[in-house]
Amino acid sequence: MRWGNIISKEFPNSQQLKEKFDRGLSKLKESGQFDEYYDELLAGKYALDKKND
Q: Helices 33-42 and 14-31 meet at what angle, rounded to 10?
């Protein structure tokens, strides 16, 4: 799976934010929670309710 840039390099402290995000994502992947959340996302568990947009 590929991720795009989610934090602009122009944003103050962007490198530190990216590193913190990457550490958190690694923890989720190592624990298996990432795969669980991703499977639930694909199953529609986190779909937005269009009438509340």
A: 90
